[in-house]
Amino acid sequence: MADPISLSSGVVALMTFTLQSSVVLYKAIDSYRSHPKNVRDLKDELEALAGVLQALSETAEKHKEIDLTALKLPLLRCGKACHEFEEALAKCSSRSGGLKTSFRDWAKLKYMGDGIDEFRRMLAGYKATIVIALAHANLQQSSLTIESLDKYKSMIQDTTTDLEDHLQNVDDKLKSTFLQAADRSNEDAVLVRQMQEERSSTQQCLVICAQLSAYISQIQPTLAANGARRSADARAAGVAAVAEQITADGLEGCKDALGIASKRLEEHLISIVDRLMATSKKTLSSPEETANLDILHSEWQTARLCIDLCSKANESVMKINLNVFENLKGEAEVLQFFASTTGRVVHAKDIFLGAKGVQFGGQLSDATVQQICRDFSPSARMAAMGSETEMITPAADGTGTSQFLDRYGRGFKLIPKPAQDDKGISPGQQGEQAKKTG
């Protein structure tokens, strides 16, 4: 049967194919009467996968500027896995005489040599990778909270661990297949074993590069902090502090070199696996064995790509700067800003403001912050109050500022008292006295 879609297809077409494949598989499973616990879990996973794919399609439609091409291979492999599992289910059912499957039939159902639980975990890996890649694409366009960022980091870590376990499982199966193929042919046996040894060596070298790069990333912040402290002391003493800078430059150069070496090792590893695939296929006796080997190879490629997507997403998360404000108390009259003018994530919690204080938070431009400061300056607030209440305007001093306002604040107009005679009696009081004596 020819593939209904290929990697050359567009992302939208691949989304549609994968969504349809997952729905068809769900309906096929649901059509059987017997649903043990692992089958019910698989149905739940398929429902969740369909929801993620639907959300991905809606996002791609609304935000065409988001680049989702990195998801093409995971989408294709996920769709094919659902389609192939549905075919395996149909074969399992036909072998039981066309009756609805029983628990025993479900237990016999295999895909890539594994059972239903392993297939469900594989789908969960695809689903999580799609969610991470989508969040990575939206990282600079969406508002984030520190809670959602922590949740995102945990998801990346958990997904990476699961994908690495899955990759190891697939890699072991590929190795076993390659060695079996070598045993069938004396002519290619030595070559296959040599290539397999080279493959193992290349994978070990990749691990060494990754570990060393991670260690350098771990010590760089400490070195930078020590360098900043030493530089301040050195400037005070009139001495140049360059040792930390030389070391920092050297470490950064090491990371760059490790990155180049890792890339070359990856290319070498792919080349070896391709040669092993071609050599092993010569000894396979049936089209089914060839198809199973192709599935393992595709899954090996996809798992590695998913891990790479998670790694890039993790690098982006680590570069996000957070402005965290917690447990702060403001004075009675204070202007507070809990904001970022550079796009950093702002986290404010348990902030207490005085009775007449003013607060601004979120993402603000430099111009907005400056304008707010002018609008809420003492002189601007005085002018605003003066427009509502009539004020005494004292004479300005030589600098053009009011000493009265600076010292006493705003004033208010006194109500004039009535005039009095020589005895200190006002005209109103004289009239009252005349009435009493009259």
What does this structure look like?
By secondary structure, the chain is mainly alpha-helical. It has two domains: 11-320, no CATH class; 324-408, no CATH class. It is 68% helix and 6% strand. The chain has a two-stranded parallel sheet with strand order 1-3. Residues 414-438 are annotated as: Disordered. Residues 2-210 form the Azaphilone pigments biosynthesis cluster protein L N-terminal domain. InterPro entries: PigL_N. This is Azaphilone pigments biosynthesis cluster protein L N-terminal domain-containing protein. It comes from Lasiosphaeria hispida.
Task: Give the arrangement of secondary structure elements.
Elements: H1 11-30, H2 37-62, H3 72-95, H4 103-108, H5 116-138, H6 146-184, H7 186-237, H8 243-281, H9 287-318, E1 322-329, E2 335-340, E3 345-352, E4 358-363, H10 366-375, H11 378-386, H12 403-408, H13 427-437
Parallel strand pairs: 1-3, 2-4
Give a concise summary.
The chain is mostly helical and 438 residues long.
Which descriptors would you attach to this protein?
single chain, mainly alpha, 2 domains, two-stranded parallel ribbon, 13 helices, PigL_N, Azaphilone pigments biosynthesis cluster protein L N-terminal domain-containing protein
Tell me the radius of gyration.
37 Å
The structure class reads mainly alpha
The sequence of SSEs as H and E is HHHHHHHHHEEEEHHHH
The percentage helix is 55-70%
Low-pLDDT stretches are: 388-397
Alpha-carbon distance between the termini? 127 Å
Strand order of the largest sheet: 1-3
How many β-strand runs?
A: 4
Please state the average pLDDT score.
77
Describe the sheet with the most strands.
2 strands, parallel
